TrEMBL record, chain A:
Protein name in UniProt: ABC transporter permease subunit
Lineage: Bacteria, Bacillati, Actinomycetota, Actinomycetes, Micrococcales
Record-linked InterPro entries: MetI-like, MetI-like_sf
Gene3D superfamilies xref list: MetI-like
Topology relative to the membrane: Multi-pass membrane protein
One GO MF term: amine transmembrane transporter activity
GO biological process entries: choline transport; glycine betaine transport
Species the sequence originates in: Arthrobacter terrae
A GO CC term attached to the entry: ATP-binding cassette (ABC) transporter complex
Predominant location category: membrane
Pfam family, one: BPD_transp_1
Residue ranges the record marks as coiled coil: none
Automatic annotation (TrEMBL), chain B:
Keywords, in A-Z order: Signal
GO CC terms, sorted: ATP-binding cassette (ABC) transporter complex
Listed Gene3D superfamilies: Dipeptide-binding Protein, Domain 3, Glycine betaine-binding periplasmic protein, domain 2, Periplasmic binding protein-like II
Classification via Pfam families: OpuAC
Domain ABC-type glycine betaine transport system substrate-binding: 48-313
Cleaved signal peptide residues: 1-31
GO molecular function, one term: transmembrane transporter activity
Protein name as catalogued: ABC transporter substrate-binding protein
Length: 673, 324
């Protein structure tokens, strides 16, 4: 589950020169040669050099990685790193998390009534939403948090909220200074970027168990895991915001003789403010999705409800809790977005209330909030959500009935659809990848990489593939790659179809947005069970789950790209008699080419982020190794190696798609690996 | 930091005011509702016991009864922690878990935490016996009666072909938390099958459920006791019987899985403390029927605590035996 937005400087663009035409033809020629070599090798040498490793077997490397767990356990008590750094860090994080949990959810001593009752919590959060955003998001906050109570999930939701809040605060304390450093210093940027890549592509399942070993089970580990996962977006966007300030602005301030520090806080930070707040938004969403997964190391909250429900295949309960997570994501997104709009330079003037009037209103509502808090601390119905308003069971039962009906009546349809896709496309493609000798495939991919991005890219890809081979997981990696690429192609098809529709019509856009938000934030655990019912435990199910998660981001990016095309260009095309189809294929898609490439890159990264989740429903490959390593200490080392292999596969795919996007000519994405 | 970010500037005083107000309220709200929570059963010679809750319903049943007795008869404070098995064992080392009330084998973890690190001790059998093996849905056992003999599996391999199994019959494996010998079994018994990893228990259960509902063939790894068997009584396929030592070399296994005498594991800390909770954990012992009756109530929607109370009330003499 990678971040919601990765922002990297576009890969070095090869110089455009008069020979561009010749370059393209040479590139095509090279790609063709690679394809021919691949096919020939597959036909002649099929089944040799596949490096297959049965699921229960380990290599020596995996065995030595296995010892990592034991080593930590032995060293926790005596080692100074633990005594002076890790243990105090854990206590500090635990203290902050404990404070917020006591305020919103329940005190750590086990009392079930929080410092603020539910009514008080709703009042305080509504007021904060009003203070940083506007009246609309404040109302949304009040309605949604009250709805949690109606779902019978108020306490769980409050736990989740408290953990997200703790994690986001820590993320900002760490992330913004790091982002500023990376934005102002090229050297820091160079060191930080690969680390962030690593943090974002490493599957969370890999480091969850070791983290629980280092920081112990419970909220503190959960928060730390969440910070690791949620910090990259805010660091990247802070750095990006500072870097995209126009040179002449900077020079203007320099010519006035500002010092570095003055420049930072009078020019750079204010001008980058909106991008930074966008980073906070992205980090918040990432934190919410991670807090759910952290339920596996005993983080309290909605994630627990989902995970426990999954165990007994209770679809209704899982969907009820999943709905609460989606709603919370929407509230957090809308409030932080409103805050970022408020942070926009010039927004101040457009406001309806003048500065002083606003402060009066804020103070008045704050007093009201205190009153409500006092009520909820003294009256039981305002402290604990009344049980007779709890409709959670009704929601669960309805969903269970609906999902049962779907599974009973659609199975044969979905079953034959799955069979035709798997047998017709996935199986041949996968055997093309897994049964070609590994050395040949490495050469083929290197040639393709050279054709797309030159020597540098060829070297990077060869290195990544070499790492995967030496991790002993080549065959599993190819299984994963086959499903990943197929899923990405479908994601891009959906991205173009729905993205164009949304970009052309704001009504379709408005109708689609909530669904896309839900697809992105609904924890995958929730829909795995109904999908299993429809498609069985197969790679196809995993692909469908990946598409649900990845398509929204591809669609959103494409829609933004289409909508950003200047209307005059489109109008010119329409007035010169183009049909809508011609406008789309000849004007809008070509002009949004760069955005499409970005969508393909992000879609691919999102699909890759679902590799491990997919393994829970039959994807096999690297994901399965990671899952097994998480639950079985004897294969921990193999899981760790598989996590690394996923990281290197991610880097490889990322660099190739970026390079393909940067080179001129041809449609991006229509290229073989 | 005056103009750093408008958002921070606005929200910081707000947050500070909120926190300040909270503190004020904590001071003055003397009669707040949450002051009355603890203090009901404070017989403190037992103290606090951290019980790992592994998620399957059989475990939940064991834990519910243990926790109910420990809380209501011994006055212990029980803290339940939802964890998977591997993480639960880690909790022994870090002192965060005191009791695992139903353990399935796990030789590797036993070696690491009981033999090597000496942070946990075996607290004896739960009285439940676990069977791991290959199972088929009941409709298949009825239609093909000889399928339950492992020797006939090759005859039926074609039935079990799927898009995932590369032209062979499919053996569906489940929860990766369990050690399986299935790949070795297929090889050493010369079966025309391929092991496919579903990746989770949920996937396995859902697959069996679909297979029975739609009368589609399925052969898979499963285990008893498990709540799902009361919904769909899967039928076990007999492989060559287990004999001591036949599974010593994981590469050469050609026999069925052994019976698992499920046991309890408690932390060394708890065992040494002489707490009545440790004594209760050691004495806890019941039958598969007992467990299934509680598990069924829980699966039917009863709260674990209520299901435990129902069983304890009906089996007072058994519980008294544990507390002696």
């Amino acid at each position: 589950m990678a971040t919601l937005l990765q922002d990297r400087p576009a890969a070095a663009r090869p110089a455009r020169s008069p020979v561009a035409g010749r370059r393209v033809s040479r590139r095509t020629w090279l790609l063709l040669a690679a394809a021919v070599l691949w096919l020939l090798g597959f036909l002649l040498l099929r089944g040799t050099g596949t490096l297959a490793l049965p699921a229960s077997e380990l290599t020596d490397l995996h065995r030595s990685l296995n010892r990592f767990n034991g080593w930590i356990a032995e060293n926790r008590d005596g080692n100074p790193v633990f005594m002076y750094i890790l243990t105090p860090l854990r206590s500090a994080v635990g203290l902050v998390a404990g404070f917020f949990m006591a305020v919103f959810a329940a005190s750590p001593t086990g009392e079930v009534i929080p410092v603020l009752g539910w009514l008080g919590t709703v009042a305080v959060l509504t007021w904060i939403a009003f203070a940083v955003g506007n009246i609309r998001v404040a109302l949304l906050t009040a309605v949604v948090f009250t709805f949690f109570g109606i779902q019978g999930l108020f306490v769980d939701a409050a736990y989740t909220f408290a953990l997200v809040l703790t994690a986001v605060l820590l993320t900002l304390i760490v992330g913004i200074p790091l982002g500023v450093l990376a934005g102002t210093s090229n050297r820091v940027q160079k060191v930080v970027t690969p680390v962030l890549d690593f943090m974002q592509t490493m599957p969370t399942f890999v480091y969850l168990a070791p983290l629980a070993l280092i920081f112990l089970i419970g909220p503190a580990s959960a928060v730390i895991a969440t910070v690791i996962y949620a910090a990259p977006p805010v660091i990247r966007l802070t750095s990006h915001g500072i870097r995209s300030i126009p040179d002449n602005t900077r020079e203007a301030s320099d010519s006035l003789g500002t010092t570095g520090w003055q420049r930072l806080h009078t020019v750079q930070l204010p001008m980058a403010r909106r991008t930074i707040v966008m980073g906070i938004n992205q980090s918040t969403m990432a934190a919410l999705s991670m807090v759910t997964i952290a339920a596996l190391i005993a983080a309290p909250g909605l994630g627990q409800v989902v995970v426990v429900a999954l165990q007994s295949l209770d679809v209704g309960t899982a969907v009820n809790a999943g709905l609460a997570i989606v709603l919370m994501a929407i509230v957090l997104d809308r409030v932080t977005t409103a805050a970022s709009q408020r942070a926009e330079p010039g927004a101040r003037r457009a406001r309806r209330l003048s500065g002083r009037a606003r402060y009066v209103v804020l103070a008045g509502t704050l007093l009201l909030t205190f009153g409500i808090v006092q009520v909820s601390r003294t009256i039981l119905w305002a402290a604990v959500f009344p049980a007779r308003l709890n409709f959670g069971a009704a929601i669960s039962d309805g969903v269970t009935a609906a999902s049962g009906w779907l599974q009973a009546n659609l199975y044969f349809l979905t079953h034959s659809f799955r069979e035709s896709v798997t047998v017709g496309i996935l199986n041949p493609f996968q055997s093309l990848l897994t049964e070609t000798p590994f050395y040949l495939l490495v050469v083929v991919i290197a040639i393709a990489a050279y054709a797309i991005g030159g020597w540098k890219l060829a070297a990077v890809t060869t290195f990544c593939l070499a790492v995967i081979v030496s991790l002993g997981l080549w065959n599993d990696a190819m299984v994963t790659l086959a499903s990943t690429l197929l899923a990405t192609v479908i994601v891009m098809l959906l991205g173009v179809v729905f993205g164009v529709a949304m970009g052309r019509s704001s009504r379709i856009d408005a109708a689609m947005r909530p669904m896309l938000d839900a697809g992105q934030t609904m924890p995958a655990f929730v829909y795995l069970v109904p999908f299993l019912g429809l498609f069985g435990a197969t790679r196809f199910t995993a692909i469908v789950a990946a598409i649900i998660y990845a398509a929204p981001v591809a669609i959103k990016i494409t829609a933004d790209g289409i909508a950003a095309i200047s209307p005059t260009v489109v109008e010119a095309a329409v007035s010169s008699g183009s049909t809508p189809w011609q406008v789309i294929s000849k004007v809008q898609l070509p002009m949004a080419r760069k955005t499409l490439a970005l969508a393909a890159n992000q879609g691919l990264m999102y699909v890759l982020a679902m590799v491990v989740i997919g393994a829970l429903v039959g994807a096999g490959g690297l994901g399965y190794d990671v899952v097994a390593g998480f639950v079985q200490s004897s294969v921990f080392g193999k899981g760790l190696a598989a996590g690394l292999a996923i990281v290197f596969l991610g880097i490889l795919l990322d660099r190739i798609t970026q390079a393909a996007a940067a080179t001129p000519g041809r449609k991006p994405g229509a290229r073989k690996t | 930091m005056s103009r750093t970010a408008g958002l921070l500037k606005r929200s910081l005083p707000a947050a500070a005011a909120t926190v300040g107000a909270l503190m004020l309220l904590t001071g003055c709200g003397g009669a707040a509702v949450n002051q009355s929570a603890p203090g009901a059963a404070a017989k403190t010679d037992c103290g606090t016991v951290n019980v790992a809750l592994n998620a399957w319903v059989g475990y939940t049943a064991d834990a519910a009864v243990y926790n109910y007795v420990a809380t209501n008869k011994l006055g212990c404070t029980v803290v339940e922690k939802n964890l998977n098995e591997q993480i639960s064992w880690q909790g022994f080392a870090s002192g965060q878990v005191d009791v695992i009330i139903e353990n399935w084998g796990h030789d590797d973890l036993t070696k690491q935490y009981i033999t090597d690190q000496k942070v946990a001790v075996d607290a004896g059998p739960t009285g439940n016996v676990g069977h791991i093996g290959w199972y088929v849905p009941p409709w298949m056992a009825a239609k093909y009666p000889d399928i339950t003999d492992g020797k006939n599996l090759n005859k039926y391999a074609d039935l079990f072909k799927t898009s995932e199994s590369a032209g062979k019959g499919q053996v569906l494996d489940g929860d990766p938390a369990f050690v399986t010998n299935d790949e070795a079994l297929v090889k050493n018994l010369n079966l025309d099958y391929k092991v496919v990893f579903s990746g989770s228990e949920a996937a396995l259960i859902q697959s069996f459920r679909t297979a029975e509902a739609n009368k589609t063939p399925l052969l898979g790894y499963f285990y008893d006791p498990q709540w799902f068997l009361s919904e769909v009584p899967l039928v076990k396929v007999e492989l060559p019987a287990w004999t001591p030592g036949c599974d010593a070399d994981p590469e050469k296994v050609a026999c069925d899985y052994p019976e698992y005498k499920l046991n309890k594991v408690i932390s060394k800390k708890l065992a040494d403390s002489g707490s009545p909770a440790a004594k209760l954990a050691t004495a806890f012992n019941w039958t598969n029927e007992d467990q299934n009756s509680v598990a069924k109530d829980i699966q039917g929607g009863m709260k674990p605590d209520a299901a435990a109370k129902k069983w304890v009330d009906a089996n007072g003499s058994v519980v008294d035996g544990w507390l002696k």
